[in-house]
Protein backbone atom coordinates (compact mmCIF):
# COMPACT_ATOMS: atom_id res chain seq x y z
CA UNK A 1 0.00 0.00 0.00
CA UNK A 2 1.42 3.34 -0.97
CA UNK A 3 1.32 7.05 -0.39
CA UNK A 4 3.35 9.64 -2.20
CA UNK A 5 5.51 12.36 -0.72
CA UNK A 6 5.93 10.71 2.67
CA UNK A 7 8.03 7.78 1.43
CA UNK A 8 11.47 7.78 -0.08
CA UNK A 9 11.06 4.46 -1.87
CA UNK A 10 8.41 1.75 -1.70
CA UNK A 11 10.37 -1.41 -0.90
CA UNK A 12 7.82 -3.75 -2.47
CA UNK A 13 7.10 -1.75 -5.63
CA UNK A 14 4.10 -2.23 -7.92
CA UNK A 15 5.22 -5.23 -9.93
CA UNK A 16 2.44 -7.71 -10.67
CA UNK A 17 3.96 -10.08 -8.10
CA UNK A 18 3.13 -7.50 -5.44
CA UNK A 19 -0.19 -6.08 -6.62
CA UNK A 20 -1.66 -9.50 -7.33
CA UNK A 21 -0.78 -10.65 -3.83
CA UNK A 22 -2.28 -7.51 -2.29
CA UNK A 23 -5.47 -8.12 -4.28
CA UNK A 24 -6.04 -11.31 -2.27
CA UNK A 25 -6.60 -9.28 0.90
CA UNK A 26 -10.08 -8.83 2.33
CA UNK A 27 -11.69 -6.78 5.05
CA UNK A 28 -12.18 -9.98 7.04
CA UNK A 29 -8.47 -10.83 7.11
CA UNK A 30 -7.15 -7.25 7.24
CA UNK A 31 -9.75 -5.18 9.13
CA UNK A 32 -11.54 -7.61 11.44
CA UNK A 33 -10.71 -5.40 14.43
CA UNK A 34 -12.53 -2.51 12.74
CA UNK A 35 -15.61 -4.21 11.27
CA UNK A 36 -17.69 -4.35 14.50
CA UNK A 37 -17.46 -0.56 14.77
CA UNK A 38 -18.68 0.21 11.24
CA UNK A 39 -22.26 1.43 10.80
CA UNK A 40 -24.29 1.18 7.56
CA UNK A 41 -24.28 4.96 7.03
CA UNK A 42 -20.60 5.58 7.74
CA UNK A 43 -18.38 7.63 5.48
CA UNK A 44 -14.98 5.89 5.26
CA UNK A 45 -11.54 6.77 3.92
CA UNK A 46 -9.24 3.85 3.03
CA UNK A 47 -5.80 5.42 2.80
CA UNK A 48 -3.19 3.57 0.76
CA UNK A 49 -5.93 1.40 -0.71
CA UNK A 50 -3.85 -0.30 -3.42
CA UNK A 51 -5.91 -2.59 -5.70
CA UNK A 52 -9.03 -1.88 -3.67
CA UNK A 53 -10.22 -5.30 -2.54
CA UNK A 54 -10.44 -4.23 1.11
CA UNK A 55 -11.98 -0.93 0.02
CA UNK A 56 -14.74 -2.75 -1.85
CA UNK A 57 -15.44 -4.98 1.14
CA UNK A 58 -15.78 -1.90 3.34
CA UNK A 59 -18.16 -0.31 0.81
CA UNK A 60 -20.38 -3.40 1.00
CA UNK A 61 -20.67 -2.82 4.76
CA UNK A 62 -21.98 0.76 4.38
CA UNK A 63 -24.92 0.57 1.92
CA UNK A 64 -26.23 3.94 3.14
CA UNK A 65 -22.74 5.42 3.38
CA UNK A 66 -19.69 5.73 1.14
CA UNK A 67 -16.04 4.79 0.90
CA UNK A 68 -13.20 6.76 -0.66
CA UNK A 69 -10.08 4.83 -1.59
CA UNK A 70 -6.92 6.93 -1.76
CA UNK A 71 -3.49 5.97 -3.07
CA UNK A 72 -0.51 7.76 -4.57
CA UNK A 73 -0.27 5.46 -7.60
CA UNK A 74 -2.83 5.95 -10.37
CA UNK A 75 -2.27 2.54 -11.97
CA UNK A 76 -3.46 0.64 -8.89
CA UNK A 77 -6.45 2.98 -8.61
CA UNK A 78 -7.52 2.01 -12.12
CA UNK A 79 -7.44 -1.63 -11.03
CA UNK A 80 -9.33 -0.77 -7.84
CA UNK A 81 -12.05 1.08 -9.75
CA UNK A 82 -12.50 -1.82 -12.15
CA UNK A 83 -12.75 -4.28 -9.28
CA UNK A 84 -15.40 -2.21 -7.47
CA UNK A 85 -17.40 -1.92 -10.70
CA UNK A 86 -17.23 -5.70 -11.17
CA UNK A 87 -18.94 -6.07 -7.79
CA UNK A 88 -21.66 -3.57 -8.70
CA UNK A 89 -20.72 -1.11 -5.96
CA UNK A 90 -21.86 2.46 -6.56
CA UNK A 91 -20.90 3.94 -3.17
CA UNK A 92 -17.12 3.78 -3.61
CA UNK A 93 -14.75 6.16 -5.39
CA UNK A 94 -10.99 6.37 -5.81
CA UNK A 95 -8.57 9.27 -6.07
CA UNK A 96 -4.89 10.06 -5.96
CA UNK A 97 -3.84 11.42 -2.58
CA UNK A 98 -0.74 12.39 -0.64
CA UNK A 99 -0.98 11.10 2.91
CA UNK A 100 0.99 14.06 4.23
CA UNK A 101 -1.56 16.52 2.86
CA UNK A 102 -4.94 14.88 2.43
CA UNK A 103 -7.28 16.78 0.06
CA UNK A 104 -10.23 16.67 2.46
CA UNK A 105 -11.61 19.21 4.94
CA UNK A 106 -11.29 18.71 8.66
CA UNK A 107 -13.84 16.40 10.30
CA UNK A 108 -14.97 14.66 7.08
CA UNK A 109 -14.99 10.89 7.75
CA UNK A 110 -16.55 8.61 10.35
CA UNK A 111 -13.72 6.12 9.81
CA UNK A 112 -10.18 6.67 8.48
CA UNK A 113 -8.36 3.39 7.90
CA UNK A 114 -4.94 2.35 6.63
CA UNK A 115 -3.32 -1.04 6.27
CA UNK A 116 0.36 -1.76 5.57
CA UNK A 117 1.07 1.92 4.83
CA UNK A 118 2.80 3.37 7.89
CA UNK A 119 5.67 0.87 7.69
CA UNK A 120 6.72 2.37 4.35
CA UNK A 121 6.71 6.08 5.19
CA UNK A 122 9.29 8.44 6.61
CA UNK A 123 6.83 10.24 8.88
CA UNK A 124 4.17 7.84 10.20
CA UNK A 125 3.23 10.29 12.94
CA UNK A 126 2.52 12.95 10.32
CA UNK A 127 0.29 10.54 8.41
CA UNK A 128 -1.63 9.63 11.56
CA UNK A 129 -1.97 13.29 12.38
CA UNK A 130 -3.58 13.89 8.98
CA UNK A 131 -5.83 10.87 9.47
CA UNK A 132 -6.91 12.33 12.80
CA UNK A 133 -7.56 15.72 11.23
CA UNK A 134 -10.02 14.40 8.65
CA UNK A 135 -11.83 12.11 11.13
CA UNK A 136 -15.03 13.46 12.64
CA UNK A 137 -14.93 14.66 16.25
CA UNK A 138 -17.03 13.03 18.91
CA UNK A 139 -15.86 9.49 18.33
CA UNK A 140 -14.59 9.38 14.76
CA UNK A 141 -12.34 6.37 14.22
CA UNK A 142 -8.74 6.20 13.05
CA UNK A 143 -7.84 2.53 12.49
CA UNK A 144 -4.38 1.30 11.52
CA UNK A 145 -2.89 -2.16 11.02
CA UNK A 146 0.77 -2.94 10.30
CA UNK A 147 2.95 -6.01 10.07
CA UNK A 148 5.92 -6.58 12.35
CA UNK A 149 8.64 -8.25 10.29
CA UNK A 150 10.90 -9.19 13.20
CA UNK A 151 8.09 -11.39 14.47
CA UNK A 152 7.67 -13.50 11.31
CA UNK A 153 7.60 -17.26 11.95
CA UNK A 154 8.61 -19.64 9.15
CA UNK A 155 8.43 -23.39 8.78
CA UNK A 156 10.78 -24.56 7.54
CA UNK A 157 13.29 -21.79 8.23
CA UNK A 158 16.31 -22.51 6.01
CA UNK A 159 19.34 -20.19 6.09
CA UNK A 160 18.28 -18.47 2.85
CA UNK A 161 14.91 -17.40 4.26
CA UNK A 162 16.56 -16.23 7.47
CA UNK A 163 18.99 -14.22 5.33
CA UNK A 164 16.05 -12.67 3.46
CA UNK A 165 14.53 -11.63 6.81
CA UNK A 166 17.83 -10.01 7.81
CA UNK A 167 18.12 -8.20 4.49
CA UNK A 168 14.53 -7.00 4.61
CA UNK A 169 15.20 -5.12 7.84
CA UNK A 170 18.20 -3.39 6.28
CA UNK A 171 16.54 -2.61 2.95
CA UNK A 172 13.25 -1.34 4.41
CA UNK A 173 15.05 1.07 6.73
CA UNK A 174 17.39 2.22 3.97
CA UNK A 175 14.28 3.02 1.92
CA UNK A 176 12.99 5.20 4.77
CA UNK A 177 10.53 2.82 6.40
CA UNK A 178 10.10 0.88 9.64
CA UNK A 179 9.65 -2.86 9.03
CA UNK A 180 8.58 -3.51 12.63
CA UNK A 181 5.85 -0.87 12.52
CA UNK A 182 3.30 -3.03 14.33
CA UNK A 183 5.00 -2.55 17.70
CA UNK A 184 5.19 1.25 17.37
CA UNK A 185 1.57 2.07 16.53
CA UNK A 186 0.55 3.05 20.06
CA UNK A 187 3.56 5.38 20.31
CA UNK A 188 2.85 7.02 16.96
CA UNK A 189 -0.82 7.47 17.84
CA UNK A 190 0.06 9.27 21.07
CA UNK A 191 2.51 11.49 19.22
CA UNK A 192 -0.21 12.23 16.64
CA UNK A 193 -2.48 13.63 19.35
CA UNK A 194 -4.49 10.70 20.71
CA UNK A 195 -4.51 10.30 24.49
CA UNK A 196 -4.07 6.82 25.97
CA UNK A 197 -5.80 4.82 27.24
CA UNK A 198 -9.27 6.25 26.60
CA UNK A 199 -8.66 7.18 22.95
CA UNK A 200 -6.39 4.27 21.94
CA UNK A 201 -7.35 0.58 21.83
CA UNK A 202 -4.45 -1.69 20.78
CA UNK A 203 -4.67 -5.30 19.64
CA UNK A 204 -2.61 -7.94 17.84
CA UNK A 205 -3.59 -10.41 15.15
CA UNK A 206 -1.80 -12.48 12.54
CA UNK A 207 -2.02 -14.04 9.13
CA UNK A 208 -1.15 -17.72 8.95
CA UNK A 209 -0.41 -18.92 5.43
CA UNK A 210 -0.13 -22.61 4.63
CA UNK A 211 -0.84 -24.83 1.63
CA UNK A 212 -1.74 -22.95 -1.53
CA UNK A 213 -1.69 -19.55 0.17
CA UNK A 214 1.87 -20.11 1.41
CA UNK A 215 2.88 -21.09 -2.12
CA UNK A 216 1.28 -17.94 -3.51
CA UNK A 217 3.15 -15.83 -0.97
CA UNK A 218 6.43 -17.54 -1.80
CA UNK A 219 5.95 -16.90 -5.51
CA UNK A 220 5.15 -13.28 -4.75
CA UNK A 221 8.50 -12.87 -2.99
CA UNK A 222 10.21 -14.93 -5.68
CA UNK A 223 9.32 -12.01 -7.96
CA UNK A 224 9.30 -8.94 -5.75
CA UNK A 225 12.77 -9.50 -4.28
CA UNK A 226 14.17 -8.87 -7.79
CA UNK A 227 12.51 -5.46 -8.14
CA UNK A 228 14.40 -2.17 -7.72
CA UNK A 229 12.89 -1.37 -4.32
CA UNK A 230 14.54 -4.44 -2.84
CA UNK A 231 17.40 -5.64 -5.04
CA UNK A 232 18.34 -2.15 -6.20
CA UNK A 233 18.57 -0.83 -2.66
CA UNK A 234 20.33 -3.93 -1.31
CA UNK A 235 23.05 -3.76 -3.95
CA UNK A 236 23.42 0.03 -3.92
CA UNK A 237 23.79 0.12 -0.13
CA UNK A 238 26.26 -2.76 -0.10
CA UNK A 239 23.98 -5.10 1.84
CA UNK A 240 24.07 -7.82 -0.80
CA UNK A 241 24.89 -8.66 -4.40
CA UNK A 242 22.70 -9.37 -7.41
CA UNK A 243 23.87 -12.98 -7.37
CA UNK A 244 22.84 -13.43 -3.76
CA UNK A 245 19.47 -11.76 -4.31
CA UNK A 246 18.77 -14.04 -7.28
CA UNK A 247 19.67 -17.06 -5.18
CA UNK A 248 17.29 -15.87 -2.45
CA UNK A 249 14.57 -15.47 -5.07
CA UNK A 250 15.00 -19.12 -6.00
CA UNK A 251 15.05 -20.05 -2.31
CA UNK A 252 11.64 -18.44 -1.87
CA UNK A 253 10.26 -20.50 -4.73
CA UNK A 254 11.76 -23.68 -3.30
CA UNK A 255 10.38 -22.87 0.15
CA UNK A 256 6.87 -22.63 -1.28
CA UNK A 257 7.24 -26.07 -2.82
CA UNK A 258 8.14 -27.62 0.53
CA UNK A 259 5.54 -29.91 2.06
CA UNK A 260 3.97 -28.34 5.16
CA UNK A 261 5.54 -24.90 4.56
CA UNK A 262 3.90 -22.28 6.73
CA UNK A 263 4.39 -18.63 7.67
CA UNK A 264 2.85 -16.54 10.45
CA UNK A 265 2.83 -12.76 9.98
CA UNK A 266 2.01 -10.81 13.17
CA UNK A 267 0.23 -7.47 12.98
CA UNK A 268 -0.17 -4.65 15.42
CA UNK A 269 -3.60 -3.02 15.28
CA UNK A 270 -4.89 0.22 16.73
CA UNK A 271 -8.36 1.69 16.95
CA UNK A 272 -8.31 5.35 17.98
CA UNK A 273 -11.23 7.65 18.77
CA UNK A 274 -11.15 11.37 18.05
CA UNK A 275 -12.72 13.30 20.92
From TrEMBL:
<feature type="domain" description="Methyltransferase">
    <location>
        <begin position="39"/>
        <end position="169"/>
    </location>
</feature>
<dbReference type="GO" id="GO:0003838">
    <property type="term" value="F:sterol 24-C-methyltransferase activity"/>
</dbReference>
<keyword id="KW-0808">Transferase</keyword>
<dbReference type="GO" id="GO:0005783">
    <property type="term" value="C:endoplasmic reticulum"/>
</dbReference>
<dbReference type="Pfam" id="PF13847">
    <property type="entry name" value="Methyltransf_31"/>
</dbReference>
<comment type="similarity">
    <text>Belongs to the class I-like SAM-binding methyltransferase superfamily. Erg6/SMT family.</text>
</comment>
<dbReference type="InterPro" id="IPR029063">
    <property type="entry name" value="SAM-dependent_MTases_sf"/>
</dbReference>
<dbReference type="InterPro" id="IPR025714">
    <property type="entry name" value="Methyltranfer_dom"/>
</dbReference>
<dbReference type="GO" id="GO:0016126">
    <property type="term" value="P:sterol biosynthetic process"/>
</dbReference>
<feature type="region of interest" description="Disordered">
    <location>
        <begin position="1"/>
        <end position="21"/>
    </location>
</feature>
<dbReference type="InterPro" id="IPR050447">
    <property type="entry name" value="Erg6_SMT_methyltransf"/>
</dbReference>
<protein>
    <recommendedName>
        <fullName>Methyltransferase domain-containing protein</fullName>
    </recommendedName>
</protein>
